[in-house]
Amino acid sequence: LGAGPLYCTDDRKIDPGFRPAFAFFTFGIPHRVGMSQYGAYGRAKAGQSYQDILRAYFDGISFEKRDKNMRIKVQGFGEMALDDYLLGVYEMPGDWPMAALKAQVVSARSYALAYTGGGAKEICTTQVCQVYKGGNKGGDWEKAVRETEGEVMVQGGQVISAWYASTAGGYTFRSGDVGWSDRPWTKRLRDTTGDVGSVADLLARGYDRDSPCFYAAQGWRGEYGKSAWLKEEEVTDIVNVILLARRDGGTKEHLYQPDKPNPAGTDSWSREKIRQELSSRGVTPFSSISEIRASSVDWSLGRVTQVTTSGNAGTATFDGSEFKDFFNLRAPANIQIVGPLFNVERK
User: Fold this and answer.
1) Are 172 and 189 in contact (CB under 8 A)?
2) DSSP code string of 53-92
3) Looking at CB atoms within 10 Å, which of 162, 233, 237, 240 has the fewest?
4) pLDDT of residue 218
5) How confident is the model at residue 129 (pLDDT cuts 50, 70, 90)?
């Protein structure tokens, strides 16, 4: 996060120049495990202490001190004392509230010790590990390092790998939920100030709602205001692709987006070909849609469980993850749904 700005934009403010227009807005960006940095910002503004913030995001932890002068190896910079290393970590803006900065410092210190095995292994300097630029960032960041010297999070006597990312979108997940090894200090959390039962509730109550990536349509193309807005025929095509995959799973290698090379090494079928293949299998394809929406959401976990569309061929319903997966297979350019909780906006 501190390495540079987030490049999420609010496509609700962009006119793509066509109607109807549909955009698929995701809450948050991957990976949603551990501390949400913008969530820490929101919690700090609400008056929470740095230890309270960390307890919110990590399960069953305690706080212990480690030697601040312990030596760790930093790729391209050599060996240095642990807290000297932290002075040059750039993962959070230095003008954020002190409680957020301290939560970030303790997370970064814990992550560094866990990643290096207590200093045995070298740590990289990019977002693959955590961003390190060298020197001393100074200001309140330095103060946060000094005032938490040596402090780490521990579970079962071991320093935890304290993962964090910029924006969880109101919900965090266990590491096993996102395909990583399951770790007991990760947790499922509804990261909000109160109950949530709608998109409006989450937009108003998410602790990380100040992030530009809290609610955003991901991806863009050169035309249409460089936005992620899709035309009706593009969304209709995605619906038809799912219907065809359901009817005949052997067609999947032909269902990739036609504007990029086919990763299966075969041909990607056009919209018209998709409709023809559906008709030949006794399925009436959609030629237009009047509505598409996330018709069922698990607001306790933060997941769309059902998507419903209506159009000339009637009504079709899809599992939330099924729709997301095929959307990401077929949508043009680099337009993607990047998480389990999303919403459809329309112009």
Assistant:
1) yes
2) HHHHHSSS-EEEE--TT-EEEETTTEEEEHHHHHHTB-SS
3) 233
4) 96
5) very high
